[in-house]
Protein 1
Amino acid sequence: VDALKEKGLFRGVKDHQMVVPICSRSKDIVELLIKPQWYVDCVEMAKKAVDAVRSGELELVPSAHERTWYAWLESCRDWCISRQLWWGHRIPAYHVTFTDPSLPKGDPDDGKFWVSGQTEEE
């Protein structure tokens, strides 16, 4: 607040009603925890699927579903897979740690020091 006042950007303080989320089972207060988000780039995959149907390499039976196929795949967006992790699905992402004390440790929640591959060795 002080920094905003110094720059002349402070506009005031207002009360803000907030709904506190409560767990339906335990009745505990649910606190938000910001975590790194992982996305799958689906655009290229969707383009290949659309091209396969258009070229005849892939046939949809019945063909009446082609319109839905194109509607879904031509407007697809990146898929946030972070939510699937809560259900136990694993993604090939690994947090890098160093044993050399001169190198920074890294925080698993800061989004740095993460690599992806099909195996840990990769």
Note: The longest strand covers residues 93-95.
Protein 2
Amino acid sequence: FFFFNDTATTEIYTEQIVGSVRCVQETGQLTGPDAEKIQRQMLDSAIEGLSKGFMEYNNDPILPIVRNVVRRHVEKVEKLSPEEQGKILALSDYQINSIRESDRKAKEDYLKSEPKGLDSAAKSHPTIKKAMEAWGH
């Protein structure tokens, strides 16, 4: 992988490369007879983009492959009925209960924690001291 002083740029390029490679792997073309050629062209395209500081994807051998994979996945979803789409996107009872429990725990922890930024003078103020004692601090 290539690294820049700008970690966001490195992360974006890394995600693009990893995502694209996964799409190509799905098609099996990285293990076929053209695998070495495709990998060499991928590297050349990435180096060209990195040297310019932005990706144009000129002569990128996997871009058409990635587009086809994404198009096939989109077509599957587009053919679903609204009810089928709702089932896919809906959370299970377990997921809903997990979220509720996490929220309850986070709220409880927050309410039990000592407020941040209080110095010793503020903590010794009678009103704040009384409130903190009521919170168990």
Note: The two ends are 50 Å apart (CA to CA).
